[in-house]
Write a structure and sequence with these properties.
Elements (H helix, E strand, L loop, with lengths): L1 E4 L3 E3 L7 E7 L4 E9 L7 E10 L12 E2 L8 E3 L4 E3 L3 E5 L4 E8 L6 E4 L6 E4 L13 E5 L2 E2 L1 E7 L5 E7 L1 H4 L11 H10 L7 E7 L19 H10 L4 E7 L2 H5 L4 H17 L3 E5 L12 H16 L5 E3 L1 H5 E2 L2 E5 L13 H8 L11
C-alpha cells in the first residue's frame, strides 16, 4: 500500500547528468519498500542508472550506513518512456512509520520536460555534476529546490487491514502557507493522528494536492496548476496501491476562475460516480474561507456557501469533513481565524493546518 504519494506536475528547465535527492516522509510503516518513479509528463525517455534510499539525517545528509540501492527488474538502471512510470523491486527489510527518507536518483544525460511536484513544502537537493546517489555526505548537493523530482509514490507491504486515504486537492492540501521542511501539512497531522491508534485502526495518507489545481479545468504544463482533478483522478489517485478512500478538498480555484456552484457540483458528482465505480469511498471536505484574499468577492462567497451546503447536506459523499467550520472566524465566517491565516487570507498556516488535521473523525475516513 501507499505510505507516501505526490501528484505529477511539471518543473521548468532541464537536468543534465546530476543527482536529485528528494526527501519524503512515510505515514505508516511496513516492509519491502518500493518507489514509483514517474516520467508521466516527460517528452523523452528518462534514464537513471543509480537510485538509492536512506534515512535523512539533516538537510541533504543521510544517516551513515542507511543508504541502500534500488533495482528495477533486477537492474540498477531503468529507462522510462514518456508518459510512463517504473516501480522498483522491493527493498527487503522494515520501513519505519513517520520517518523522513532520502530518495536519490542520478539522471543520465539531459532530460526533456521534467515530471515533478512543485511547491512541495519540502526542500529537495540537486548535486554537482555526476552520480552522487550513494553519497551519504551532503557535500555534493549544492542547490536547493522546492519540488520533488520524478517521485510518485512510496509503497510498502503492511498489515492487510491498513488502507490508504488519498487527499485530493489544491494548494490548501499541498499546505502552502506551512513552514517548509517541518511536515506540518494537514495530511501529515492526520497521519500522525492515525499513527497513535492501535494497528488495526491505522490508515496511511497519500497527499495528492497540486497548488492551483481545479476540479474542472487545467492542463499539465510548466508553470501551470496541473491537469484537472477530473483528468488526473485515475493516474494520481486510483492507481496508487491500497487507496480505499478519497478525501476531496478542492474547488476554490474553480470558483476564482468563474465556475458556478452548479458546474462545480456537477464535477463533484462525476468524481463521486467514478470513485464509487472503482469500489472505493469518497469523503467531501468543505471549502475553507477566503475573505480578505484575492479570491474573495461577495458573489464568489455565495458560490462557496452553496457548494459547502451541498457537501454537508446532499448525502452524496460517503462522509464529510467540515474544514470550513474548523478554520473560520466566528466573528466573520467569510474569513479564516486570524491565528490560522498564513498571511494571504487564503492559505492556512501551521496552526490552521493543525486544526484541519483534527477536523476529521478518524472513523469517517475508513471505507467500510
Amino acid at each position: 500500500m501507499t505510505t507516501w504519494g505526490a501528484s505529477d506536475d511539471i518543473a521548468g528547465g532541464t537536468l543534465n547528468d546530476v543527482t536529485v535527492r528528494n526527501i519524503l516522509r512515510t505515514s505508516v510503516g511496513g516492509k519491502d519498500l518500493r518507489i514509483r518513479v514517474s516520467n508521466a509528463n516527460g517528452d523523452q525517455p528518462l534514464v537513471t542508472d543509480s537510485v538509492y534510499v536512506g534515512r535523512q539525517e539533516a538537510a541533504a545528509g543521510v544517516v551513515p550506513g542507511s543508504s541502500r540501492r534500488l533495482t528495477f527488474g533486477g537492474s540498477t538502471s531503468v529507462e522510462i518512456p514518456p508518459g510512463a512510470m517504473a516501480i522498483s523491486d522491493p527493498l527487503p527489510g522494515p520501513v519505519p512509520a513517520r520517518t523522513s527518507l532520502t530518495v536519490s536518483l542520478h539522471v543520465v544525460g539531459t532530460t526533456g520536460v521534467i515530471t515533478a511536484h512543485n511547491r512541495a513544502m519540502q526542500h529537495s537537493y540537486k548535486s554537482t555534476s555526476g552520480d552522487h546517489a550513494a553519497d551519504e555526505s551532503p557535500a555534493a548537493y549544492q542547490t536547493e529546490s522546492s519540488a520533488w523530482y520524478f517521485l510518485n509514490a512510496a509503497i510498502v507491504e503492511a498489515p492487510q487491514q491498513v488502507e490508504t486515504v488519498a487527499t485530493l486537492g489544491d494548494s490548501i492540501t499541498s499546505s502552502v502557507g506551512t513552514t517548509i521542511d517541518t511536515n506540518r501539512r494537514w495530511p501529515d497531522v492526520l497521519a500522525d493522528r492515525y499513527g497513535q491508534l492501535p494497528e488495526p485502526r491505522r490508515l496511511a495518507i497519500s497527499n495528492e494536492g497540486i497548488s492551483g489545481n481545479r476540479v474542472l479545468g487545467g492542463v499539465a504544463k510548466a508553470g501551470s496548476a496541473g491537469a484537472s482533478a477530473l483528468a488526473r483522478l485515475d493516474k494520481d489517485v486510483l492507481t496508487k496501491p491500497g487507496v480505499r478512500t478519497v478525501l476531496l478538498l478542492e474547488g476554490i480555484n474553480d470558483i476564482y476562475a468563474g465556475a458556478t456552484s452548479d458546474q462545480l457540483i456537477a464535477g463533484y458528482r462525476q468524481l463521486i460516480a467514478r470513485v464509487h465505480a472503482s469500489g472505493r469511498c469518497i469523503v467531501g471536505g468543505t471549502l475553507t474561507p477566503v475573505g480578505g484574499s484575492f479570491v474573495y468577492t461577495p458573489e464568489k462567497e455565495a458560490t462557496r456557501q452553496a457548494v459547502n451546503q451541498f457537501i454537508r447536506t446532499s448525502g452524496e459523499f460517503d462522509g464529510v469533513v467540515d474544514f470550513d467550520a474548523a478554520t473560520r472566524d466566528p466573528a466573520d465566517p467569510t474569513r479564516l481565524q486570524s491565528a490560522y491565516d498564513g498571511g494571504d487570507g487564503l492559505h492556512p498556516n501551521d496552526a490552521g493546518n493543525h486544526a484541519m488535521g483534527y477536523a476529521a473523525n478518524l472513523d469517517t475516513l475508513r471505507c467500510n
